[in-house]
Write a structure and sequence with these properties.
alpha/beta, 4-stranded antiparallel beta sheet, single chain
Length: 251
């Protein structure tokens, strides 16, 4: 489903965010991507759907080359890859329903996407998805009136409405308290199991990675330093991944 070869990302005048990443994620896997702040987790996720252009290396998603792809190819890739941001990335003045409906935009003809014209079947699909994430009764509420956990579920609904083959979640629980973190992670796991959607979620809490990931990939200084099942994440493995407390090695 996802193939990454020799991926490198250098920022001008800044750090090397990714340093030769090789990674293969199979269809239907739930991968927990862990590492300290600055390890390269967010950069890697953004390279997977073309939001960030790597300095070198190759990325393929579902057999389609993302690196070097033309704009129309990237649009196709992104229509099949849902992205869940840690800060939700919602349009705060729109309703829950309107925000979730935006997940259909990549599948619409360009003229319909410009007009924001959705068919009845798309509206029905979106309402069903909101019910699935427990937000059916809040469809008409503005998202800026919701709690953080509710907003993150709107973001997950928007990703689901796309009909994705892959969901990339960039620290989806970073803005949530521990109880809500488990609610969001359980929702992602249920989607993975019931729909067969491949999920790659970056996390900074080891216990969440152990609890929800089928496979754990650890990054440090832009390199893969661990790749294995949850049982392999013992104290020694965690020490290789997580930076000791103190000043970060780079921003």
């Amino acid at each position: 489903m996802i193939r990454v070869r020799g991926l490198r990302k250098d920022y001008p005048g800044g750090p090397r965010a990714l340093d030769g990443i090789d990674l293969h994620v199979a269809r239907g896997e739930f991968v927990a991507l862990i590492g300290s702040s600055g390890a390269g987790k967010s950069t890697l996720l953004r390279c997977l759907n073309g939001l960030v252009t790597p300095t070198a290396g190759q990325v393929e998603v579902d057999g389609v080359a993302v690196t070097g792809a033309a704009a129309e190819v990237l649009r196709l890739v992104r229509s099949r890859v849902g992205f869940v941001f840690q800060q939700f990335n919602l349009l705060r003045r729109l309703t829950v329903l309107d925000n979730a409906m935006l997940g259909r935009l990549p599948h619409l003809p360009r003229w319909r996407s410009l007009l924001g014209w959705f068919a009845a079947a798309e509206l029905e699909r979106t309402r069903a998805t909101l019910a699935r994430v427990g937000l059916a009764d809040l469809a008409g509420r503005r998202v800026d009136t919701l709690s953080g956990g509710q907003q993150q579920r709107v973001a997950i609904a928007r990703a689901l409405v796309q009909g994705p083959a892959v969901i990339l979640a960039d620290e989806p629980m970073a803005s949530l308290d521990p109880a809500l973190s488990h609610t969001v992670m359980e929702l992602l796991r249920r989607i993975n199991r019931e729909d067969g959607i491949t999920v790659v979620a970056s996390l900074h809490v080891l216990e969440l990675a152990r609890s929800y990931g089928q496979r754990i990939v650890g990054l440090r200084h832009g390199r893969v330093v661990h790749d294995g099942p949850p049982a392999s994440l013992d104290d020694a493995a965690a020490a290789r991944i997580i930076e000791p407390a103190g000043p970060a090695d780079r921003p």
